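Dear Dr. V.,

Thank you for agreeing to look over these. As mentioned in my earlier message, I'm a first-year student in the group and I'm still getting used to reading structure tokens, so any feedback on how I've presented them would be very welcome. I ran two proteins. I've put each sequence directly above its structure. The first is here:
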Amino acid sequence: MSKNADAILLVEDNPDDAELTKLALSRHGLDGRVTHVSDGMQALDYLYRRNGFTNRSGSNPVLVLLDLKMPLLDGIGVLREIKGSDLLHNIPVVVLTSSTEPSDLLRAYDAGTNAYIAKPTEFSQFLSAMKHVCEFWININQTAPQTVNATVRNTGFGDLI
């Protein structure tokens, strides 16, 4: 695993849920290794180093924690873009959402999610879930090498590298 400074990209529009997730991750030694963006377009800007993220340091995250229901571009749109990109498709994406709707699960897996976690409502259960996420995706999982040469793709979101 690449132990870069920004190991996790958290894509979450609810500030309270984002803080709760960052707190849970910090309890497992990942404080300072989480970058938070609040919508799907910011997530793609971060991953493609566009707009406010053109000069970001480090490599791509080793994990994306992705909410589904967000403004501008929802989680399914972000997931489809990540998994359809030669540059990004190897980044593991874990959907972390409050939805337990079967249609949301199906859409997420059809779009290529690596895992789907319904956020527990009890804080102790949420901490436990985040512990397992950290253990597997950060400590155990071996990520694929990052692609260096990406081609420009024309999508509904503009030209993406």
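The second protein is here, in the same arrangement:
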Amino acid sequence: MEKFEISVVRAEIGSILIFTRNDVCEQIQLTEDILPEYGNNIFTRQINEYLCGERKVLDFPVRYSTGPVFEKIWSYLKENVTYGKIITYGELAKICGTSARVVGYAMASNPLPLYIPCHRVVGKDSIGGFTARNGKSMIRWKEYLLKLEGSL
């Protein structure tokens, strides 16, 4: 299997790592580490434009695999909860015919944060959680992204 090419975009609070293979994004990771920028491609350009407020939708090529329930949740979120909007776990669960717990698990399993905007899913009475796939809390990133979009 071909190795990933990794690009890095810096943000005010850390770095965004973009893992691509054959010019298709397969994973995005957020880190609080400040890393040197690396890569000049459609992925880094669109994410930089998003961070500068010049782009509201990321539409670069992606590849991921998941089951039908997560696919339904992620598709609804990407298509309907646009820049500057938020939705609660419960609301998204009701629309997708599942439970808020399943929605939370889908958000935590998201391989493409920013592209699939899991940061826009909040709790009924709080900002909710935001966990990296390695289990580390990334709530600072969620707050940063919601403020960037004017939702917080």
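From my reading of the second output: The mean pLDDT is 95. The CA atoms of residues 40 and 93 lie 38 Å apart. Does that match how you would interpret it?

Kind regards,
E.
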